[in-house]
Amino acid sequence: MFSLNRALQKLSIVELSKLQKINVRFKAKIVDLPQIGHGVSFRRKVHFPDEYTVKPLEVTNLGGRDPKTGRVVVNGIGGGIKHKYHWIDWVRTGPKEGPPQVEKVIKIIKDGCRTAHVALVAVGDRLKYILATENMKAGDLICTSCNIPRIPVRAKEGDAHPIGALPMGTQVHCIEKYPGQGGVYVHAAGSCATILRKAPNNRVIVTMPSKKEFSFPEVNMCTVGRLSNVAHADTPIGSAQKNRELGNRPRSGWWQRKTGRFGRKIRKPPPVKDINPISTPRAERVALTYTHPFVHTNQPCFHY
């Protein structure tokens, strides 16, 4: 034991650190997992160029994997038909004074990377993509203006104006969150928001498709009309093969709602329950029926 203690004393600090680094064979590598549902999509990665272009962009399908670590984050994504991405110009800018800027719709196309249709618009010598409205067609002229007049503007579908320039009850989409940021809210097919009322401090209350009310500054830009492809939400997928073409992997099959064999059982509803007001029972009245007088005795008892 004495010799072992002498040997340990002779070891230096460097040699002890080397001995500690030996047993690292099965040490796990700590990787920060990404947060799902915070504005990050694990379905595809779009390769954006430096400048805006109407040329369809190349897309890399992630299949539910994190692009940094390569680990599977979402299990329900994978496969599907590859679609190229059409770059949408979310910022609609126009003159702040004078007549509005006139734009012409060239054609309406379908985009496999989004639910609503896409419109190719010409502005002077420049082309750009915007989201198409419900009744928009090739050859239409749409206007864009950043002016807020004293009298509300009677706009038509596809026109872009500040929220404060439109009358109450107007259906809008592609609403800016901050002035100049570009359309952030209401992008899904067939959806629209409704301008409800004006509020103090130059703000406008808008009812979103989720029936929630948002308050925006009146200078935020928006596009008038309801988005195209209205029947998207009511159109069934139809088959499992079509669902795989959309890029959705099958579930485990454990939960079957129709049969309930592997999941929740289908039982008949309980009988109708009558809800009646609670009635307090009346206290029973006790009456004495003995009519003879009591007799006092020497013993502690009574004779009846």
Automatic annotation (TrEMBL):
PANTHER family: LARGE RIBOSOMAL SUBUNIT PROTEIN UL2M (PTHR13691:SF73), RIBOSOMAL PROTEIN L2 (PTHR13691). This is Uncharacterized protein. GO terms for biological process: mitochondrial translation. Belongs to the universal ribosomal protein uL2 family. It comes from Dendroctonus ponderosae. Residues 155-273 form the Large ribosomal subunit protein uL2 C-terminal domain. Keywords: Ribonucleoprotein, Ribosomal protein. Residues 64-144 form the Large ribosomal subunit protein uL2 RNA-binding domain. GO terms for molecular function: RNA binding; structural constituent of ribosome. GO terms for cellular component: mitochondrial large ribosomal subunit.
